[in-house]
Each structure stands twice: as structure tokens, then as C-alpha cells.
Amino acid sequence: MPPPSLPAARDPAAAVPTTTTTSARRRSKEGATAAKVHPAPTEKGAMGAAGGEDGWRLPEWCSAAGVAGILRRHPLPALFACGLLLFMAVEYTIPMVKPDAPPLDMGFVVTQGMHDAVAARPWLNSLLAALNTVFVAMQAGYILWAILFEQRPRAAVAGLMMFTCRGMLGCATQLPLPDEFLGSGMDFPVGNVSFFLFFSGHVAGAVIAAADMRREGRVALARLYDALNVLQVVRLLACRGHYTIDLAVGVGAGVLFDTIAGWYFDAKNADGKNAHCRSCQCHKALLSH
């Protein structure tokens, strides 16, 4: 038998044959493989098998306790769900307006008393129209101030998008002017000229301006514009200058195009330190792109 090597002589543990260690490692590896191939059944796996071959079962929120939890934690979506069911029933059962009948507008019904008062006083109609035109000029003035003096073009771009879309929709579907429309030479557009009904640019422009004010921290001014916008809505309904749907979509259009304008400038600034910045301060470099 040959003499042990020098390392083995110095370390007796190193003289142990490697075959024993190799065999132990092989057995350990085989045991791990067997454990992976035949895992022990767990509680979750047992429940999944009970639910079906693929382990699917109803979500927890489908139970009575789950529904109660949703109603408690998310009352607003639950209310919208009830509204869906309600208006599905209303839509499928409400009688349609006849082709030869005027549109049925609930906003006109609510403001009928104010309409009669304004119709009986032409001077009041002209005064309200003039005040509304001043408010439109205030919207335009603020948006122009933002782009020309503060170099913040987001509101201006949103306004351009909004009025372009409004013109396209107005040409695509021309709604009839209400029979009780109270026109005035003091109204905007000044001169009692024709205009698109769907959707309201008056309302959308005010929403865009107020959104820009909030981004700049001018909360009090934004609230003032919101209040004037509500008064504008009432006046337009009372004078039959817009249908209710024109005004409601005007609010949504203002929010939509303000958001799209923000996306546009975020994409333009995405190559620098202003990426994903929602503040209009990062949009000052209008001409740099």
C-alpha cells in the first residue's frame, strides 16, 4: 500500500475516501428530486382540487361576506353598479321620442321658470349674454397669459385640441337648434351667428383654465372659475343655447384634452430629467423640441 500523501498526513480528515462523500451527495440529490416530483399535498392544493380539475373556484368576493366587504370598503363603485342595473331597466322600457317631436331635455324642464323670465325681459337676456361673453374672454385671456408670459403651453394646446375635436363632431352630427332658443347680439360668438351645439366649448374652456390654475396652486381662482362655470351652465340651459348633453360632455372634454396635452408634453420631455413629471414647470421649453 502506498504511503499517504502529504496533505492526508497533515489532515486525517482528508484521508477519508471520497466515494463515501460522493455516495451521500448522490442520495441527497435523489431524495430532493423525489420530493419535487411527489410533493406532499397542501391545504391550498386540496381546496383547489375540490374546486375543479384546474384548481379554479369562485373568487372570495362572490360570497355574501365578500359582497358585504365590498359595499363597506368601496361604496362608490357599488353605487355605480346599482346605477347600471337601474338605467338598463329604464333604457329598455322608456318610450322613445317621436321623430316629429322636439328633443326631451330635463335641463330645459328644470330651468323653465328662468327661461320664461328671461324671455319676457329682452334686456335681461342681453345682460346675461354680455356677462357670459366676459367670462369666455376671461378664459381665453388666462390661457393666453399662461403661454405668452409664463411660457406654459399645456392649457393652450389642450384648447386647440378641444376646439378642433368640437368642430369635427359638430360637422359630423348637426343637432337642431331648440325652438325656444333666446339669441342675443351680445352672446359669444358675438353677433348672434350660428354655432355648433355638441359639445359646449364655453364649458370645456373653463374646465381647462381651472385645471391649469390648480396645477399652479391658484386654488381660489380655480374655484371662482368653477362657480362661474356653473352659472354659465344654468344660463345656457335657461336660454336654450345648449342641450344638457352638450354641457355634460363639455366638462368631460375639458378634462380629457387637458390630460392628453399633459401626456403630450410628458412624452416630449421624456428624454431628460423631466420624465414622468406632471408639473407644467417642465413644459417651459416649448420651442426646444
From TrEMBL:
Query: Which residues does the UniProt record annotate as the domain AtPDCT1/2 transmembrane?
Result: 104-262
Top-down, what is the taxonomic lineage of the species of origin? Answer: Eukaryota, Viridiplantae, Streptophyta, Embryophyta, Tracheophyta
* Ranges where the record places region Disordered: 1-51
InterPro entries, per this entry? AtPDCT1_2_TM_dom (IPR056361), PDCT1/2-like (IPR055311)
Q: Which UniProt keywords apply?
A: Membrane, Transmembrane, Transmembrane helix
Q: Which domain of life is it from?
A: Eukaryota
> What PANTHER family has UniProt attached to this entry?
PHOSPHATIDYLCHOLINE:DIACYLGLYCEROL CHOLINEPHOSPHOTRANSFERASE 1-RELATED (PTHR34674:SF1)
Q: What is this protein called?
A: AtPDCT1/2 transmembrane domain-containing protein
